Amino acid sequence: MAYLRRKTRRKDGRLYESWAIVESVRTARGPRQRTVATVGKAPGLDGQERLGWEQIAEELSGRPAVAGQQRDLFSPPPPEPPQWAHVDLSRTRVERLRRFGDVYLAQALWKRLRLDEFFARNMAPGREDVPWPTMAALHAIARLCEPSSDTAVAESFFGKTALDDLLGLPPDKVYDNRLYRALDVMLPHREALFSHLRDVYGELFSAKFDVLLYDITSTYFEGQARGNAKAKRGYSRDSRPDCEQVTIGLVVTPEQLPLAYEVFDGNRNDATTLSEIFDLMEQRYGKSRRTWVLDRGFVSEDNLAELRRRGALYIVGTPRSALKKCERELLDAENWSQVAPGVEARLVTLPPGTDSEGADDPGARETYLLCRSRARIEKDRAIVQKAAGRLRDGLLKLKDQIDRGYQRDRARAERRIGRLLEKHQRASRLYTAALTERDDPEHPGKRRLHMELTENSQAAEWTALQNGCYLLRTNLAGQEPAKLWRTYIGLTEAESAFRALKSPLGLRPIYHQKTHRADAHILTCFLALAMRRTLSLWMKESGLGTAPDKLLAEMKEIRSLDVILATGEAKELRLRLVGTPEPGTRDLLHALRLRLPNRPKIIPNVVPTQTVQKT
After folding, report:
1. How many angstroms from the chain centroid is the CA of residue 461?
2. Are 247 and 273 in contact (CB under 8 A)?
3. What 3 state SS string does 348-410 have?
4. How far is CA 71 from CA 75, 76, 108, 111, in A?
5. 346 with 337: CB under 8 angstroms?
6. How many CB atoms within 10 Å of residue 611?
7. Across the chain, how many H-helices and E-strands are there?
8. Residue 238 φ then ψ, to 5°
């Protein structure tokens, strides 16, 4: 059997690479490889040549192509014989410049997650002109590359890209009503999609699902959303309390891979969503002693009792008020261990009655982990100082108005004090504002409002002491502080997923006014999030960091185009091809082992795309 082997040697500071064709032969000392020929000797092959030789090496050795590589788009599998034509160079022109690289990469992600197979398997073909799996791919690719409305996808995005070539989708078949109907067809397969992604994550990334991270966010509607029963006003994480909203609970793995989600009413309390999420995961993956990582907003004794009843383990945050019980440990400079650069932690024992120690259920015996972060100390100090300054300015302004007689209504002054304390809660204990009534020296027989403002030095000392500190609570037994901290800090990955959903992927705001359309919009954002996170891990494995937005922006510069050649027979020859990327972009493609189409395709002349009338 013949093989292709790369050889490298350095001489006079220069790297020389060559390829040798070798074959296996049997000798008295066992199998050996004999060089048949040496080819490609040059000082440093560029990325495109190297990738070509590696492809030949795979063919010779019989190894399958690496996941993520795609077949040539424009060239047929068997090479065609050369075609010759006389060309009038003075009439040569270029037309139909289209975005190619970013949508080509998005399609590679779609296939890498085997979503093409999933939707083809679950969406039975009918009488539709365009297969629904193709429309599902268009939705996800558009959401990843350029989030916009369905109307904008049909009227702008699709025409600027090479998706008609990649998906085999004629431009006149893409319009808003067809995109809307595709959303309706995709939504019923949501539950099956969760199971499919779980299997693919295990194969691609060896992901394990014994630890799950759960967090919740909200997104608001533009419009009144009267056709959506879940749209209600509640606590808005987007600072839009004036809008109707829905609440979304997202489950991710420690690798930040989105696993499942659920949509709740907009006024749903965070802690009340856990029971439904537990049922959802148990129905899909069965009951197992998995570990849940939760933020302190979900912590309640009822939720923790339910987790223990289900046989689950947990690591949860606690309210800041719980730090008061650890004052002695915070003052102790010893017995801290470093769990990460700039982060210290120690196990603590809280006073009797605080935890569940001594309960009959072994899962109820809890451990507390006190953590302190240097970076967070500076951040908390800055937050408290800013809040304290604004609170003090507001109280002094009120005091000045009272002293000058502009504010005489005691009830109104108390309400102003209450609003100031509520607005600046982190500094609310640093000042005490006491209102009293005294005799008015200027008007004998009348009472005058008086305000006394004092600073609480003890509260200031305690606030400074607890800056950068937080307390974790878990029923995991025998775990080292570093492992407990690393498991909990993965919750920031869920928060990062929410940030990606809202900004790069356009989850907010929602313009659909009906329940099923809004739910389908969230589904397409979830699909794009899975593709985006897959790209991040693909880049990490390839040594390209984890900045998918920058890579997509770089890939967007790769264009497809049509070169029009006037032949001697007074006819025009249209060649569709992909432009050669810049050297830096070629290096990125080589690192990802992603090949671009490199042969032109002769196609019939096309009629310029016309605006499709809405029906």
Report:
1. 39
2. yes
3. ECCCCCCCCCCCCCHHHCCEEEEEEEHHHHHHHHHHHHHHHHHHHHHHHHHHHHHHCCCCCCH
4. 9, 9, 11, 12
5. yes
6. 9
7. 20, 18
8. -105, 10
Terminal-residue alpha carbon distance, the chain: 61
Residue 95: pLDDT band with limits 50, 70, 90: very high
- 313 contacts 337 by C-beta, under 8 angstroms: no
Specify whether the CB–CB gap between 574 and 603 falls below 8 A. yes
Structure tokens at 561: 């185009």
Residue 125 and residue 100 in contact, taking contact as beta carbons nearer than 8 Å? no
Cis peptide before 509 (omega within 30 of 0): yes
Which of 207-221, 338-352, 393-407, 539-553 has the lowest average pLDDT?
Answer: 338-352
Residue 55: what pLDDT? Answer: 52
Contacts of residue 553, Cβ cutoff 8 Å, sequence gap at least 6: 102
Q: For residue 415, which amino acid is it? A: R
Contacts of 33 (CB under 8 A, 6+ apart): 3, 5, 22, 23, 24, 25
Which residues does 213 contact at the CB level (< 8 Å), separation at least 6?
251, 252, 253, 254, 292, 293, 490, 491, 493, 494
List the structure tokens of 429.
């204990």
Q: Output b/e per residue, 532-555; b: 16+ Cβ within 10 A.
A: bbbbbbbbeeeebeeebeebbebb
Q: Given the DSSP bridges, would you call strands 211-220 and 291-294 parallel, antiparallel or unpaired?
A: parallel
How far apart are alpha carbons 474 and 484 in whole angstroms? Answer: 9
Q: Confirm if 20 and 38 have CB atoms less than 8 A apart.
A: yes
Going along the chain from its start, the domains and CATH numbers come out as 1-64 (no CATH), 99-189+540-553 (no CATH), 207-366+475-513 (3.90.350.10), 377-466 (no CATH)
Question: How distant, in Å, are the alpha carbons of 334, 337, 338, 380, 468 from that of 341?
Answer: 17, 11, 7, 18, 14
Would you tell me the crossing angle of helices 515-541 and 132-145 to the nearest 10 degrees? 70
Q: Which residues contact 464 (CB under 8 A, 6 or more apart)?
A: 381
Indicate yes or no: pTM above 0.85. Answer: no
Q: Which two tokens stand for residue 514?
A: 């009906």
Please report which helix (H) or strand (E) contains residue 455, including its range. Answer: strand 447-455
411: part of which helix (H) or strand (E)?
helix 410-423
Q: What is the pLDDT of residues 161-208, one digit of tens each?
A: 999 999 999 999 999 999 999 999 999 999 999 999 999 999 999 888
What is each CA distance from 295 to 88, 245, 278, 316, in whole angstroms? 69, 21, 15, 6
d(CA 144, CA 551): 12
Residue whose entry in the numeric block shows the structure tokens 């010779």: 60
The helix (run of H) or strand (run of E) holding residue 536 is helix 515-541
- Backbone angles phi and psi of 223, in degrees to 5: 110, 175
Place of tokens 């891990």: 537
Edge-to-edge strands, sheet with 14-27: 2-11, 14-27, 30-42
| Confidence label for 606 from pLDDT (cuts 50, 70 and 90) | low
Residue 488's identity, in one-letter code, is Y
Q: 330 or 365: whose pLDDT is higher?
A: 330
